[in-house]
Amino acid sequence: MSEPIWNKFLTDRDKAVFEASGYGARGGFGKRPALLVIDVNYAFCGDKPEPILESIKKWRNSCGDESWVGVAAIKTLIDKSHEKGLPVIYTTGVRRDDNWDSGSWSWKNNRGNEAPRVQQSNVDGNQIVDEIAPAPQDIVILKQKPSGFFGTNMASYLTLLGCDSVIVTGTTTSGCVRATVLDAFSLNYRVAIAEEGCFDRSQASHAINLCDMNAKYADVVKTDEVLDYMDSLSDDLFELPSGKH
């Protein structure tokens, strides 16, 4: 078995502490999961696969090539969820045209007033990438802060669906994914993170945040294991939205 992605960033002391302290126990999957797809939009992926330092010239929040590796993994989970009739819930951002509601986001980035779009194509950065565009039965939640739960209907929708657990994918691992995971954990959902389905603009932040979440808040598991788990579930667990008028 290969070593966890975060091991190369840990000191020997760190590894000894995690081993001795009891963190990192397996929490296990729930019985009624929803798949969460956090902020997989053009602002974070760019409009095409390209090296991150090229992509961020146009899309300041882009995670570059690794975004599209993540998108491919997420698509397999979405396809399986649709096949099994499991809820798929997307989040993406929303802003006023004048960017007034950016609020605290503008305090920590000196490019914060840039509109998230490419002028040549006029693609809105908050649009979920076409490769995993929501299906009619899927749910899309608009948010303005990192967590998919903060100021949104996420928790009430999970209650309506009768979910006891979430499988989290998306970006960024250290930001919106982590914030969503912590809120889900705080609400006593069982949380799994599909490792290949998460990405970040910083390789170190990606790995260390996976490490920390796996230690305390969630199970970081391979996408193939999540697919096998989904296959084990009944096909009739949920009554999903019809998507019809």
What this model shows, in words?
The model has no long low-confidence stretch (mean pLDDT about 95). The chain has a single domain (about 30-230), classed as 3-Layer(aba) Sandwich (Rossmann fold). By secondary structure, the chain is α/β, with parallel strands linked by helices. The termini are far apart. It has a six-stranded parallel beta sheet. The chain has a two-stranded antiparallel sheet with strand order 3-4. α4 packs parallel to α8 and α6 (about 175-185) packs parallel to α7 (about 205-215). The chain has helices at about 10-20, 40-45, 50-60, 65-85, 155-160, 175-185, 205-215, 225-230, and strands spanning about 35-40, 90-95, 115-120, 125, 140-145, 165-170, 190-200, 220.
Distance between the termini: 49 Å
Portion in helices: 25-40%
Computed Rg: 18 Å
CATH architecture heading: 3-Layer(aba) Sandwich
Low-confidence residue ranges? none
Largest sheet composition:
6 strands, parallel
Q: What is the CATH superfamily label? A: Isochorismatase-like
| Helical stretch tally | 8
Any idea of the CATH class?
Alpha Beta
